[in-house]
């Protein structure tokens, strides 16, 4: 978060006041079926991105493990209107003609995306579980709901952890110093 492109992206998009919204691990067990294509948050008229999500591969993600498929540049109003089309014809045509990126990530690699981007996990045909550590930061400009419930323990969500506070504590932790925020959060979760 302090020195990586991940932290830089979130900082440049949302600033130091971005709040931690999600913190979890996404598991796809052997035999898991493909997800339907979806955005994590809807396109909200007049709003820019509300969440940026980072997936970090906890092992090499191979093609047979059901990697995430993203449809780049589908975080737009036009893409969401076509995608929400209930008749299906335009939606199917749109999906079939939109280029896709497959998330075959190496262990420790990260993928950062606007949560409005259409994506899905593919079927896990391997004999291993696929694990992605993930977190999302919420735009400080959004006062209400993101349209996506937080996947974070209530104690962490209620603590309103900002990017600025977290990076400051991580710098101190790296120096071997005690960390006020991390200590407070640990106390909340006991």
From TrEMBL:
InterPro entries: Fungal_Metabolite_Diox, Phytyl_CoA_dOase-like
Top-level taxon in the UniProt lineage: Eukaryota
Pfam families to which the protein is assigned, alphabetical: PhyH
UniProt xrefs under Gene3D superfamilies: q2cbj1_9rhob like domain
Protein name per its UniProtKB record: Phytanoyl-CoA dioxygenase
PANTHER family xref list: PHYTANOYL-COA DIOXYGENASE FAMILY PROTEIN (AFU_ORTHOLOGUE AFUA_2G03330) (PTHR37563)
Origin species: Thalassiosira oceanica
